[in-house]
Amino acid sequence: MELDHVVINTLRDMDAASTLFADLGFHLTPRGHHSLGSINHLMVTPLAYLELVGVPATGRQRQEVLDSPRGLNGLVFRTSDAPETYRHLDDAGLAPLEPMAFSRPVEIDGQSHEARFSTVRLPQTAFPGGRVYFCRHLTPELVWRDEWISHPNGFEELTDIVIESRDPQATAAQFAAITGAAVRKVGDERRIDGQSFALRLRPGPVERFSELTLRFSQVDEIARRADQTPGANWRPLGPSEGELEVPSLDLTLICRAG
After folding, report:
1. pTM check: above 0.85
2. CA distances to 32, 49, 59, 258 from 38, in Å
3. Could you tell me which of 219, 212, 198, 209 has the C-alpha nearest to residue 155?
4. Which residue(s) pair with 147 in the sheet?
5. How far apart (Å, rounded) are the C-alpha atoms in residues 12 and 10?
6. How far is CA 150 from CA 36, 67, 155, 209, in A?
7. How far apart are CA 9 and CA 198, in angstroms?
């Protein structure tokens, strides 16, 4: 299991969300405009990235984004072969959607390029807690660039996501089926460990992605910025850990040093 990215849905409030994350010290990539009718900003780390996604004020608007709730709503695994991933998921009886290709323009050093992707999505009935899909980057050099990986607040890595479920055991089995990774029980959680990212499934009254943990070089800067940023709430959890809440996005991020 290899994480590609995690999505935060901003719906029609991308301007406010991108300003808030920039004020918190994340280095956002320039706004992207997908051929599907969505817009985005990335917060890139060497292994994966955190994505703000939304829809533009005018023009084509991606219905899949509009139909999804605000906040943590996309868990995306990496694939090197979208058709083969589709066949694997189909053989497992998970009814994947056909591979879909799309792109977005990227400008680098005054030159226009096209970042291209191919994805395989799982139906919402399989994972009602949020959108789950696989992504193949056909032009990774247009996403993972040195100038976009360094963040003023020390953001370095996405480490784990908490998924609440009425039946964590069954949901964990579904994730195990699509990732090929084993499930282990840790307290009241079911845990699936990947190469550098873990899924933590907990009992909950509704199906949802409830919190995401990010690793920083240190948390002093993100804590300082959160205290000064309207719309962000910081709660210390210890000398090297804190909880960052963004109520407007129904978002909880656990920020941890080292």
Report:
1. yes
2. 8, 17, 10, 34
3. 219
4. none
5. 6
6. 29, 33, 8, 27
7. 21
